[in-house]
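hey so i finally got around to running both of the ones u sent me last week. sorry it took forever, my laptop kept dying halfway thru and i had to restart like 3 times lol. anyway pasting them below in the order u listed, first the sequence line then the structure token line for each. didnt double check formatting much so if smth looks off just lmk and ill redo it

first one:
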Amino acid sequence: MEEKEPQPAWTQQTSENTVFIGRKHVMNYVVACLTFLNSSKKGILKVRRRTISRTVDTVELLKRILVKDLQLKNISICIEQVAGRESKTRNVSTLELDVAKP
């Protein structure tokens, strides 16, 4: 029986209104955010490592062009320890943004 690698804490607490920002084009994440903002009026953007700037771009596009009254409810910044190669752990920067539309 295969052992599963434990998932980071922030990936275990997901909901349908959570968008994980990765390496895709910014507009993909803008569309995903618009989808959850139209249905529930609030959501969470989660990001790790080098894609933090892509998250900022996504939120700014939403605020300036598409959802002018978008509000940032909470910004959480932390460092998460992740298992690396050769059973070493490494620190990874994480960012979580709670956004809402009034």
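and the second one:
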Amino acid sequence: MERQPRRGLDAIADVTARDRVLIAARHGGTGMDEAPDKVAALVDTARVLDALPARYALIGGVAVGIHSGVPRATADTDIAVHSQIDREAVSHALVAAGFRRVGAFRHRLNFRHASGEPIQLVFDAAFDPMIERAEHLDVAGVRVPIVRKPDLIELKSRAGADPARRRSKALQDQADVELLRGDAPDPDEGW
């Protein structure tokens, strides 16, 4: 796992901001507005969940970047929350802390942090054992649980094999699995 998670999170935020600029330019914009603050969003979410108290763990692209040591752009910060928690209590606590709820689905709630960072909370019993096994990292003085690397590989493998998943997301999941297994790019090999 990344030895200095703050540096890893900052690198993930930087490559995400670069991608936002490129995507905006492709669509005729500049994308030069203030980038969302991934670190503050993660820390603020962790503080709210800890205060409930709720069991949870960081998953998704941010977790991939931390475990692999290779930053990659990710549109949001994904957190698995234990399936037995009262989802509405979680929602009310986040809204009270300044988050804006932007979506509710069968297994997830989507929020925006005050900085604009999208936060996706996933509630699925399949994640519960992984949450219980989570490791912890220190982010700006806050202890944040993160799923273990083998669990993240399992999650990404399952998602990448899902025939209902959008093709581009499935391919990213498959690439994440290889990255987690050590297939990191060498800066001298080129693309």
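quick thing i noticed on the 2nd:
The chain has one domain: 5-180.
anyway thats it, ttyl
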